[in-house]
Amino acid sequence: MEHILAGVEQQITKSMNQMLMSMYMAEENLWHIIGRDVSIYCLEILNECKSLESLNVPNIVPIPKIT
Q1: Please, which domain of life does this record's source organism belong to (predicted)?
Q2: pTM over cut 0.70
Q3: Structure confidence by residue, pLDDT tens digits, 39-59
Q4: Range of the structural domain that residue 38 is part of
């Protein structure tokens, strides 16, 4: 693999790579707009590789009809 990459010029510096590899933080961007629970869920997906499977599970709650 190294012989293939030998001719490719490096564009990302070590400090740039550190920033790119760092964890996402709630203080970044506009997380506060979407709310705390959604922020936490998204950050868990991004930082902890949490599965997206739970998004596809329906939550059905019977609501009694009162007359």
Answers
A1: Eukaryota
A2: no
A3: 898 899 999 999 888 888 888
A4: 13-52
